[in-house]
Design goal:
- The complex is a heterodimer.
- In chain A, a hairpin with a 2-residue loop joins strand 4 and strand 5.
- In chain A, helix 4 crosses helix 5.
- Chain A is an alpha/beta fold.
- Chain A contains seven helices and ten strands.
- Chain B is α+β, with helices and mostly antiparallel strands.
- Chain B has a four-stranded antiparallel sheet with strand order 2-3-1-4.
- The longest helix of chain B has 43 residues.
- The radius of gyration of chain B is 31 Å and the shape is elongated.
- Chain B starts with a helix and ends with a helix.
- In chain B, 27% of the residues are buried.
- The chains are: A alpha/beta, B alpha+beta.
- At the A-B interface, helix 2 and helix 3 of A face helix 8 of B.
- Bound molecules: adenosine-5'-triphosphate (ATP) and magnesium ion.
- The site of adenosine-5'-triphosphate has 13 residues of chain A, from strand 2 and helix 1.
Chain lengths: 229, 292
């Protein structure tokens, strides 16, 4: 832990490596992510931002090193328990990953159905979250018929509907115009204010400058600096 | 559960063609296997009616003294599996023969002397009306010193039993074969369905769905396919049965024998095994597909 204050490191990486064959996507990353912080992981394209996030929810294994999430050592988690680990995270994927054959409502409700919640609860929760992201008019739309900004909002709704401890947002404003980007960003800020840890991977320096928070810089898979703005 | 059922039905709707192909394949397999069952059931009915009529005719040596008849009868009654022993004197036998050959009775009129021997008609208890037991009993009776000859439907019944057993064996073999083939077909469709939905499955896993949650709708899908295939196959068989029975019935109904459709409990077990086929097909392809 850094500083003298009482901060709980909800995610800890120790000398983490990730390589694809001879290519090193991540090299010797040691990093703590604190509970309730608003953290940027920045760096140019190909720096390893997405890879870093993927390691956290075990979409990919580490090549070396250790990761702890809320005290659990990821290398010790049995395969059957991985879904439960993933429920700690609300993930906004760089490519949205909405299911094109399911409606907006179904895409979001899926998360709660997978958790086995009651239909009445699900309905209430999904409607409320879709209202928060401003998609309550498009419940029955299919994702391909939505604009990029709208898809991103649905993706965020799906990420937060299960009340995750940590939101991982990969380029949440990447391909959006300034106005949509601002809306999305304010949404994420809002969830942070309400007590969720938010991690945003982005190469958008403008966004980082506007928002403030801790910034972790990646370059060619290496952690080059950590700075508070 | 309702949620899973809903997802399964949604899935079937979205993959109508694949599902239709699988259901038809299952239906055809069921049709073939169950027509064997139908044949088997009616043949064994027929054999049972024949068996009920089975008896052993015992012919005595010409010089057997009448005093030995009651003792002989008692001895045979004491043998295992014997239900009834009826004495038929040579005179009765001749009378019977005359009755049967009324038109040609002229032939018999010329007989100076009754050529027929005294005899017994031996009937077996139900449990002993199977082939080996009859044969054993016949040998036992033949060993009695007063007995000249023993007669029973040896040749044709024996041969028929053998053919019947062969058919039964072939039926089981074919049943097993079609079972495996049907499982394979279901596994293949489900694999194709899984393949077209691999992105969706991956997304579900990433948002924290357990394998069970992903698998259950596919199991339901397989079971529904199996049930529909089974029902359609049996319906087809019933149509074939109606067509055939209206023709064949007249030839056979002379006796106490009636051609009939598969009994309810067999229909149920055919549909159940068809559902098991669907479920197994899913199991096979899901096992392969949901590996990490
Ligand atoms: N599955 C993979 N196989 C091979 N190489 C990969 C794979 N995934 C990522 N890489 C490589 O690892 C490096 C880091 O990729 P990553 O996607 O993490 O970058 P990024 O920082 O998210 O970039 P961007 O800003 O473009 O999204 C890149 O050089 C990429 O080519
Ligand atoms: Mg990326």
């Amino acid at each position: 832990m850094t500083g003298g204050e009482e901060k709980y490191a909800i995610v800890r990486l120790f000398h983490v490596y990730r390589s694809y064959g001879p290519k090193n996507a991540l090299v010797d990353i040691t990093l703590d992510i604190y509970k309730n912080e608003f953290l940027f992981i920045s760096g140019p394209s190909g720096a390893g931002k997405t890879t870093l996030l993927k390691l956290l929810y075990i979409a990919e294994p580490v090549s070396d090193g250790q990761i702890l999430v809320d005290g659990m050592n990821l290398s010790r988690i049995p395969r059957k328990k991985i879904p439960f680990l993933r429920r700690n995270f609300g993930i906004v994927f760089q490519d949205y990953k909405l299911i094109p054959t399911k409606t907006v409502y179904e895409n979001v409700s899926l998360v709660l159905e997978a958790k086995g919640q009651k239909q009445r609860m699900i309905q209430k929760k999904v409607n409320s979250v879709l209202r928060t992201v401003g998609m309550e008019q498009r419940l029955n739309a299919l994702p391909p018929s939505l604009s990029g900004g709208e898809q991103q909002r649905v993706a965020i709704a799906r990420a937060v509907v299960g009340d995750p401890k940590i939101i991982l947002a990969d380029e949440p404003t990447g391909s959006l115009d300034t106005e949509s980007a601002g809306f999305i960003f304010n949404l994420l800020k809002g969830f942070h204010t309400r007590g969720t840890t938010v991690v945003i991977a982005t190469h958008d320096r403008e966004l980082i400058r506007k928002s403030g928070g801790r910034v972790v810089n990646l370059n060619a898979g290496r952690l080059i600096e950590t700075s508070d703005i | 559960m309702r949620l899973y059922l809903k997802r399964a039905i949604q899935d079937i709707r979205q993959n109508r063609f694949l599902n239709a192909v699988t259901i038809i394949t299952i239906a055809l397999s069921i049709l073939i296997v169950s027509s064997f069952a139908l044949f088997f059931i009616n043949t064994s009915d027929l054999m049972n009616t024949w068996r009920e009529g089975v008896r052993i005719m015992v012919y005595l040596m010409p010089a057997t003294p009448a005093a030995e008849i009651p003792g002989l009868q008692k001895k045979m009654l004491g043998m295992y599996g014997v239900h009834e022993v009826r004495f038929i004197s040579r005179d009765d036998a001749l009378k019977q023969l005359r009755g049967q050959m009324r038109r040609q009775s002229a032939l018999l009129e010329n007989l100076k002397e009754n050529p027929l021997p005294d005899g017994f008609e031996v009937r077996m208890i139900d449990a002993s009306r199977n082939w080996e037991k009859i044969e054993k009993l016949a040998v036992q009776i033949e060993d009695l010193p007063q007995v000249e000859e023993v007669e029973y439907g040896r040749k044709w019944l024996g041969r028929f039993t053998n053919i019947f057993n062969l058919f039964t064996l072939a039926g089981y073999g074919l049943g097993a074969l079609f079972f495996v083939a049907a499982v394979f077909f279901v596994a293949n469709t489900i694999r194709l369905v899984l393949y077209t939905r691999r992105d969706e499955i991956e997304i579900m896993r990433l948002v924290g769905a357990e394998d069970q949650f992903i698998k259950i709708p596919f199991y339901i899908e397989g079971i529904i396919q199996g049930a529909l295939g089974g029902i359609i196959g049996l319906l087809l068989l019933f149509i074939v049965f109606l067509a055939i029975s209206s023709n064949v019935a007249q030839d056979f109904t002379a006796g106490p024998f009636q051609i009939r459709f598969l009994p309810l409990h067999i229909l149920f077990s055919i549909i159940s095994s068809s559902m098991i086929v669907g479920w197994l097909g899913c199991l096979v392809s899901l096992k392969q597909f949901l590996k990490p």
